[in-house]
Design a protein that fits this description.
elongated, single chain, 11 helices, 5-stranded antiparallel sheet, alpha+beta, 24 strands, 33% helix, 586 residues, 11-stranded antiparallel sheet
């Protein structure tokens, strides 16, 4: 018996240490340094050649460039956003969400991160993704339209040498249109050449436009509950792309949308035509940034003729369904656009979307009365647990019934391991004697429903946008989207990287232990005692370290579930005792 305990402890310790080492390997504190695509500016620039960009283009100065111009910034502000542009390329350099603050701060969320001199948001490069961006000073024009409409345009002349060494020029215009109460804005890119202008063709690509180098707010890669995700929308279905640090990976063609998403915010681009060429980059931009870039590059096909215009719908804002679903119905947004597909980026999309949506409406309904998201989590958890109580109790009663026969079951499995048919026959007799129905013999649907609801509740409470900044208990649980805190350490703890002393993980482990303890109402065979020891003592300790920094909203749900499980175990034990008494009376 003691030998099994020792083996269990050694195995769990190895798993835990291995997990810590694997986490440090997969999520290092300092990202890999990768040379950026371009690091200097000159009057003549050449693109790097790549597999999808065999052609080379040189940008040359025009007469207008010879006249000194000053770089300036321009601010466009609506009730929801504050965008800052530079006239150098007509690019975005800042985009703040005025109604959403950084967790624990009064500072607005900045959605554009990791900007460098040669990597700016919505910058244009001639050719593929590795070509340097246009860095010319453009002329800027601002205008206020009707009903709060904000317009800003940037126009510049671009000159380049073609393959024959001839200098070709064209006018490039970028027109931005913002409307009140919208996180969406429009961008029109126009190229106008002269009479002898034959178009742009650099390796079957005319130009490439890019998203922000990194989206905000600041991303701690040690936080396993936050993420950065690349997505495409192909035939109405979202396809997520996995890109390793330091890697540039091409996406699938035929997409109607390209997005870079975090846990709570999204940067999405919807062109006026499907995208044939897109690349996703996780390159590091230098040691000055804590995380590598997560950037998408959208390349347009070669241009034939003297004029071209591409239109883009750009969404930079929250990932909540109430924000994204507005753009599936023209009557719900000021741009009168529909079917953009942005709703597919919501956290409630996927196989369990119907379950998550029902739970979300239930949560919102309860919040309408209690006006506290923490209390709403508790009430919804209790309600769902009561709905699932008959299924849970039936399953637990069956498990309790079979526990006294575990020694016999192990003996039969060992004795007839070479004769499966005989083993099933003998096990059937044991199950019948115990009054136990194994597996899905009594129907899998209730168990599948229960499992689906549990997973859906995890996804909801882990990603629900309204939990950002939501206070449950002032001074302790001040934001349901992050971990609780009763004391902040002066320095992060070594190896663990813990910055705060948290009480919720301790309460969670305690309730988990009590719940597991109550299931031990029967002697265990020697073969399973080691495993039972692991479940009771080692597993809660591992969960404590793994889940320490989980959002407090999740912990509130888990703790309430554990407490209800304790009461449920009392009910189960009472049913078992009643059945035992009835058998003795017979």
């Amino acid at each position: 018996m003691k030998k099994n305990y020792i083996i269990a402890i050694i195995l769990c310790s190895l798993v835990f240490l291995g997990g810590m080492l694997l986490q440090n390997f997969l999520y290092p504190n300092s990202p890999e340094t990768v040379n950026p695509a371009a690091s200097s500016v000159s009057s003549t620039q050449e693109t790097k050649t790549s597999t999808n960009e065999p052609a080379t283009v040189s940008l040359v100065e025009t007469e207008a460039d010879a006249v000194p111009k000053t770089e300036q910034t321009f601010v466009v502000e609506t009730d929801l956003i504050r965008a800052v542009f530079t006239n150098r390329g007509g690019d975005l350099i800042s985009y703040k969400l005025k109604q959403h603050n950084v967790s624990g701060s009064t500072e607005n969320v900045e959605m554009i991160k990791n900007t460098t001199e040669m990597n700016r948001t919505l910058a244009i490069s001639l050719g593929g993704y590795s070509a340097p961006i246009l860095d010319t000073i453009f002329d800027a024009k601002e205008d206020d339209g009707k009903n709060g409409e904000k317009l800003i345009s940037f126009v510049g002349t671009v000159a380049f040498k073609n393959a024959s060494g001839e200098v070709k020029t064209f006018k490039l215009s970028k027109h931005f249109r913002f409307l009140p109460n919208e996180y969406l804005f429009e961008l029109a890119v126009t190229i106008e050449g002269g009479e002898n202008f034959e178009g742009l063709d650099f390796g079957n690509t005319s130009y490439t436009i890019r998203t922000a180098p990194q989206i905000g707010p600041d991303w701690d890669k040690n936080d396993r509950y936050d993420f950065r995700r690349f997505s495409l929308l192909i035939n109405g279905k979202r396809k997520d792309m996995t890109v390793k640090a330091g890697e540039v990976k091409p996406g699938t063609g035929g997409s109607s949308l390209v997005a870079v998403s975090g846990k709570y915010f999204i940067f999405a681009v919807v062109p006026d035509a499907t995208i044939d060429t897109v690349n996703f980059s996780a390159d590091a931009s230098g040691t000055q940034f804590e995380t590598e870039n997560t950037q998408a590059f959208i390349s347009q096909p070669a241009m034939r003729g003297s004029a071209l215009q591409n239109r883009y719908k750009v969404y930079i804002g929250p990932s909540g369904e109430n924000y994204l679903y507005r753009y599936s119905n023209p009557s719900k947004n000021a741009f009168a656009v529909g079917n953009l597909g942005l709703e597919n980026l919501a956290s409630s999309s996927g196989v369990l979307a119907p379950v998550i949506i029902v739970l979300k409406y239930l949560l919102q309904f309860v919040f309408g009365f209690v006006k506290n998201w923490g209390v709403a989590i508790i009430i919804v958890t209790v309600f769902i647990k009561l709905l699932l109580l008959p299924i849970s109790v039936k399953s637990m009663v069956g498990t309790q019934k079979i526990q006294p026969y575990q020694a016999k079951i192990s003996e039969i499995q060992q004795k007839y391991r070479s004769n499966p048919q005989k083993m099933q026959e003998e096990l059937g007799k044991i199950y019948k004697q115990a009054g136990y129905t194994p597996g899905c013999a009594s129907g899998c649907l209730p168990l599948v429903v229960q499992f689906a609801v549990i997973i859906a509740m995890f996804q909801l409470f882990n990603n629900y946008f309204e939990f950002r900044g939501a206070v449950f208990i002032p001074g302790w649980i001040s934001d349901l989207s992050v971990g609780d805190s009763v004391y902040r350490f002066k320095n992060a703890l070594p190896i663990l990287n813990w910055t705060d002393l948290r009480l919720l993980p301790i309460i969670y482990v305690a309730t988990q232990y009590i719940s597991t303890l109550l299931t031990r109402n029967a002697p265990q065979p020697q073969q399973t005692q080691g495993m039972m020891f692991m479940m009771m003592y080692v597993a809660p300790a591992i969960f404590f370290f793994m889940l320490y920094n989980a959002p407090s909203g999740l912990f509130v749900h888990w703790i309430v579930s554990n407490i209800l499980m304790i009461f449920q175990q009392f009910i189960t034990n009472a049913i078992i005792e009643k059945e035992k008494s009835a058998k003795k009376a017979k």
